[in-house]
Structure formats: C-alpha cells, structure tokens
C-alpha cells in the first residue's frame, strides 16, 4: 500500500464562498514520489485533526500566509499584512501531534516557519527590513519554477544525503524566515546571506522544513523529487 500523505490547505476566500485550496504542485509531487496525496482542510475541532492523523502515514505542511507573530511573542510590523489564526492553530496542533506519533513531516515555506514557531523558535517578520545585506528571496515577477539563488547544506545533514550535494540552486518565494531555531531543530541549509533555508529535527524519524518550494521544481528539475521520495519512504508502513 502506498503511503498516504496528508497535505495541509488554506482558506481561499472568494466573494460568495470560502474554498479549501492548495497548489496542485504539492499533489503532483507526492504522486510522482510514490505517495497518495489527500488534502487536509483547516478545522477548528482539535479531535478531528487527530482523526486526520489516524488516516495518513506522513504530513506535508504547505505554504501560505505569515504565521501570527504573537506565536513567537512579537507584535506585527507593518510589512506583515495578513495571517490566519485558525490555520495556525490547526497546523501547530497537527504538527505537534504528528511529532508525538513520530510521523514523518515535511514543511515547505510557511511550513518550516510553522514547525519552528510550534516548538518555540522565532521568525524574521520581514527579512528585507530586518536582515542586513539580505539578497533576493521574493522574485514576484518570475515563474515559480525559476531557480533563483544558491543554498549550501551543512556537511553530514540529511538534506545533503538526500540531494547528494553540498550546494543547490533553488527557487524562492518568501519574505519571512527562521530567526531563532527551536531547540529541537538544527539549521542545515543556508543561503549565502545566512538566511536559514532548512531545519531538521534532531531526534525524530523525519521532520524536515525547507524555505524554498521544491514542489514547483519537480517537473522541470526532477532531482527535487528526491525530497518527496524521502518523505514517502519515511512514511512507509511496516506491513508485518
Ligand atoms: N508567508 C510566508 C510563507 C510564504 C509561502 O509559503 N509562500 C507560498 C504560498 C503559496 C504556495 O503554497 O505555493 C513568507 O512570506 O515567508
């Protein structure tokens, strides 16, 4: 049985209705990696979130809104234009319960930020106003499958092993980033301006967060599927 990967979603608020949505590239990447994707709508019922986890083998925390700054004890600066407390509550509870079960988790963009904030770390609310000498990380006028900047993996990290290299060119689409790494994680990838581009849990089977968007690269640059294959592989059930 192929591993079932739950993918978190966001509220897509239209004038007359609210939809549950996620970029289809997450779905395609899980399928390409040999998993079965299912979407996890945001819910406020905590017990329902736990039943979600009963139905999946691995969790993918997708991208989206800024995490509420009060989660890491800060009032929002003017560059923070929106957050979704319901999604924060849902995903933070889901992530913590997934860790309690040692369920494999991959966080992407917002997802790495949720993981870090959930375990007591903090975020740069806006790297372009809070980080000196920061490079480009938000090429709004370029296709999302554009390789935009380099990152370097820490020697011996899981991500170095997954991609079989110490450095990689990635796409980018964020204005926030991990600032203080939560104690449970280690930062294992950095861009050349020292922005944290990945974190890995020190103890769990597979709890990895990346700041770039590998799901948007898996068609044009197939080596990025390796990260989803690692999630799917870690999520395989012990059939015996
Ligand atoms: N708000 C955070 C995270 C940005 C992010 O997740 N962007 C992708 C959104 C759409 C998608 O999921 O593909 C930040 O700006 O740093």
UniProtKB/TrEMBL annotation:
Catalytic activity: 4-(gamma-L-glutamylamino)butanoate + H2O = 4-aminobutanoate + L-glutamate
Entry annotated with the keyword Transport: no
Gene3D superfamilies registered for this protein in UniProt: 3.40.50.880
GO molecular function, one term: gamma-glutamyl-gamma-aminobutyrate hydrolase activity
EC number: 3.5.1.94
A Pfam family per the record: Peptidase_C26
Transferase keyword on record: yes
Domain of life: Bacteria
Annotated SUPFAM superfamilies: Class I glutamine amidotransferase-like
Signal peptide annotation: none
GO-annotated cellular components: cytosol
PROSITE patterns, per the entry: GATASE_TYPE_1
Keywords: Glutamine amidotransferase, Transferase
Pathway of action: Amine and polyamine degradation; putrescine degradation; 4-aminobutanoate from putrescine: step 4/4
Top EC class, one word: hydrolase
Reported function: Involved in the breakdown of putrescine via hydrolysis of the gamma-glutamyl linkage of gamma-glutamyl-gamma-aminobutyrate.
Family: Belongs to the peptidase C26 family.
Official protein name in the record: gamma-glutamyl-gamma-aminobutyrate hydrolase
Species: Desulfocicer vacuolatum DSM 3385
Upper classification of the organism: Bacteria, Pseudomonadati, Thermodesulfobacteriota, Desulfobacteria, Desulfobacterales
